[in-house]
Structures are given as structure tokens and as C-alpha cells.
Amino acid sequence: AGVSSQTTGMRDMIETVGIIGPAFLGHQPKLTANLVEISEQFVREQEKLLCGEGDTRVSPTDIFEKEKYLARTGIHKCKFRWYSLLDHIPRSGPSIYIMNEFFDALPVHQFQKTADKGWVEIMVDCDADQDVLHYTTYRTGKAISLDHREDLLGAAAGTQFEYSPMSQRIIQTLCDRISENGGAALIIDYGENELTSELTFRAFRDHQQVNPLEDLGLCDLTADVNFRDLSQSVGEGVTAYGPVAQGDFLTLMGIGERFKQMYSSVPEDKRDAVIHAVDFLCSTDQMGARFKVMCLARSSDPVPFCFEP
């Protein structure tokens, strides 16, 4: 089950399995890939890349009213299925869940410790003329109890933090599926493995960071993933491994050997691009440290490769 709008990763995985699968199995493997997507535009792009041109017309009504709103056969005879929710994907045996830059797109709640009320939620309000939106804690209402968060005990007034209840629920759903049916989940995203007082919710438009409260509906919204919260949401019978830095993960997975292969096979004028791409993915001052990788697997299964102590 693939959960990401970045279809090139899905295509590469299917291509890899389709090529090396027969060598291990002696026959072409029967592949099924389930994608969770609610963007009509992304669905069109994914379908074209994975299945080629077609006459399929998916409407927003289809996406939100049908559990499985699109089904096609694509590369390596893989059966691709599109769903609007993870819960809609059938539980039919072990599955590998790939969630690349998925959790950073989920909603977050933000809180601030005040001197008079204690913890209150940061909300969005509008000016008297109704034209400008801004953040506020003054109309939040009564204080919110966060006594269950031991890591916030004794926090000083002015302390802020954010967390994502939806992310925690999805982790619990994944754990239920893995515990019941087997398989594993690989989570790749940017964030930290500790509580931070930095509020990370932000918006981008045309590759520039902008005010999230302006140009509503025209910007990409994101927030850093708190891997610590994800780990603490794991259910019984499942273990969270990591996170490990993306650079370390890719190195253990053989990106060095892959780099040598690509470098020697591309034209000379393309080699600098290969060097730049590997550096961008693995360097500690690029995505190598900023992005992290976590794995969820049954506690009774062997420790996944790359996550051994």
C-alpha cells in the first residue's frame, strides 16, 4: 500500500520488483499497489505515470464518495487501486506501507502556556474588518489540561508546542493492520525525534515560504513530523524502529553502489547531476540529516535491516 503523492517513488519500486522478482521467484510476481490520494490533480498525474494515458475521469465527488474510486493495470502488470482513506484499503494479508512525506501534510494543533490560563490552544481570528487573519490565544476560551504530557510539566509561560492527533491515529491504524495481517511500514519524512518548542507549521508557494494565513487554498501547507510522538503512539505487538537519518539509511541500503553504477553509465555531461542528487539526499547539510526514516514491524519479527542496534 503506497501512501504518497510522489508517484516516481512508487514507479521505481514497482519497476525494481518487476525486474528482480522473477530472479527470486522463477516467475513474474503478481503485484497490487494501493494509493491513498484525495487530490484530483495528483490522481491524474499518478495514473499517467503508472498506467499510461487513459480515458479515466475521476471527479471530486468520486474521490470523496467512493471507497475505491479508480482501478487500472499498469507497469509490470501491477494492479493499481486508488482510495481516499487508509481505512478503505482491504485487509487482505501482509502489506508494505510506504509513507514518503505523508505525515508532514497532516493537520497539527498548536498550544501556548499562558501566565493566567495555563495551556491554551492557538487559534485563528480575523480583524474587525474581516479582511486579515491572524493567530491568537485570547479567544481560545478555557484552559486545556495537558497533565498527560509529562514532557510539558513545569513549562514556563510563553512555551509553545504542536502535535498532530491525526498522525497518532494513523499510526495506531497501521499498527492494527500490521499486528493483524503482518507486513511493515516505512515512514520517510522531515522532523525531529524530540519535543521542540518551535512551531513549524508553514506555507510555501512557488518554492518560497509565505504566510499560511494568506492566499488560502493556493499554498502547500506543512509541519515538521514529531517522530517521538509517532513512536509513543505505537500499539501492542508492534515496535517502532528508528528514526535513523536518511543519509545513514540510504548508505546502508547501498546508495554508494547505485551511485557508482549510475555515474559510469550516464554521459559525461550528466555526471555532475548524479553527484548533486546523491549529495542532496545524503549530505548532513542537505536532506541526509533533516529527513529521517522510521519502520513499524511486528515485535515478533526480526529487526528490520538498517535498524539494528
Q: What percentage of the residues does DSSP assign to strands (E)?
A: 25-35%
Order of helices and strands: HEHHEEEEEEEEHEEEEEHEHHHHE
How many strands, which pairing sense, and closed or not: the largest β-sheet?
5 strands, mixed
Query: Which structural category fits the helices and strands?
Result: alpha+beta
What's the rounded overall pLDDT mean?
89
Alpha-carbon distance between the termini?
27 Å
* Helix residue percentage: 25-40%
- Low-pLDDT runs of 5+ residues are 1-5
Tell me the radius of gyration.
22 Å
Global morphology = globular
* Total E-strand runs: 16
Number of helices: 9
What does this structure look like?
Strands 4, 10, 14, 15 and 16 form a five-stranded mixed beta sheet that branches. A three-stranded mixed beta sheet has the order 1-3-2. It has 309 residues and is an alpha+beta fold. Helices cover 30% and strands 27% of the residues.
Question: What attributes characterize this protein structure?
Answer:
309 residues, alpha+beta, 5-stranded mixed beta sheet, 3-stranded mixed beta sheet, 16 strands, 27% strand, globular
